[in-house]
Design a protein that fits this description.
Elements: E1 2-4, H1 21-32, E2 36-37, E3 60-64, E4 74-76, E5 89-91, E6 103-106, H2 112-126, H3 136-157, E7 159-162, H4 173-181
Antiparallel strand pairs: 1-3, 2-3, 4-5, 6-7
């Protein structure tokens, strides 16, 4: 949360000698969003007076998540203000590389493949010998066998499909038939 809060306070401006009651409300709002006042890397006023009678002040504030690497790591740029009476503020936010899945294995509900998958799972579970489960090691072995069987049966019966912005989890064969009729 950033902006010109138009509140002078000694909490963020050491050149100002007073505390404002409005600051308490601002901190309560920030706390409700689980953010806190971020301190700039180098202190500087954010508003520059246009006459000699007024003092430069800090009116623009930055509130960030205290656990973020950006917290207490923003910059005030008084040299960038040109003819403005306010200095720009910048925060570098890291963007994490993310791998998006573009394919997945899927079974169409009520399809022949789904029926085969269910039948093979039931058959596989019926054929597992559970009489030898007398120790944790034997139990782990049985669980690994079940996992291996389910994995193989899934990939045998499912289809590898592309995930697109048009993919619909609810789309089924009836929808295809209705679309073809249309």
């Amino acid at each position: 949360m950033t902006g010109d809060f138009n509140i002078r306070d000694s909490l963020w401006d050491p050149t100002f000698p007073h505390h404002s009651s409005h600051s308490n409300t601002l901190f309560e709002i920030a706390d409700s969003f689980q953010i806190d006042l971020s301190r700039p890397v180098v202190f500087s006023p954010t508003r520059f007076a246009d006459n000699t009678q007024d003092l430069n002040s800090v009116l623009d504030l930055v509130f960030l998540c205290p656990n973020s690497q950006e917290f207490n790591n923003h910059h005030i740029h008084p040299n960038w203000r040109l003819t403005s009476d306010y200095a720009p503020i910048s925060v570098d936010i890291s963007i994490i590389d993310e791998q998006l899945q573009t394919k997945k294995h899927s079974l169409i509900k009520n399809s022949d493949e789904e029926c085969s998958f269910i039948k093979e799972i039931i058959s596989s579970l019926k054929n597992i010998n559970t009489h030898s489960i007398s120790s944790i090691k034997n139990l782990e072995s049985v669980v690994q066998k079940i996992t291996f069987n389910i994995y193989n049966i899934w990939f045998k019966n499912s289809k590898n499909v592309n995930i697109t912005k048009h993919s619909k989890a609810w789309w089924n064969d009836n929808c295809n038939m209705d679309l073809n009729k249309y």
